Amino acid sequence: QIYLTESGGGTVQAGGSLRLSCAASGSVYDSVCLGWFRQVPGQEREGVAYINTEGETTYGNSVKGRFTISKDSADDIVYLQMNNLTPEDTAMYYCAAALSDLHAPLDYNNMDYWGKGILVTVSS
Questions:
Q1: What's the CA gap between 99 and 111, in Å, rounded?
Q2: Residue-wise pLDDT tens for the chain (124 aa)?
Q3: Handedness of CA 62, 34, 46, 20 (dihedral sign)
Q4: Staple partner for 20: which of 8, 26, 27, 81, CB 3.0–4.6 Å?
C-alpha cells in the first residue's frame, strides 16, 4: 500500500505560480514512479506530468513549458512547479503512483495509487 498526501494548492491570479508537493509513504519501493493528474467536474482526468525512477519526465501538451515535475527521492516527495498559470489550469490536482515505469504514463488508468486531491484555482 502506498499513501499519497498532496499539499500546496490554493488560489492564485492568472500569470502567477504555485508549487504542489506530494509526500509518499508506505511501500514506496525503488521502482515506484509518480505523477500528477488533474480533473475538472464533468471532464475526464487529465495527465499533467510524470517522473520515473531515472528522473525522466513526461508532460501533457497543455502544460509543457510551464510546469515542471521533480522529486526528492530521499524523502519520497514529488513536486509540481506551476508557472504562468491560466484560469484553464483550475482543477483538482491528484498525485498518483505506479508500481513500475509506464509506457503510457499520462493515462490515469495505469496508475495504482492516488492521493485525495488538492484544489488549484486560478482567477482571471
A1: 8
A2: 999 999 999 999 999 999 999 999 998 888 899 999 999 999 999 999 999 999 999 999 999 999 999 999 888 999 999 999 999 999 999 999 999 988 899 999 999 999 999 999 999 9
A3: negative
A4: 8
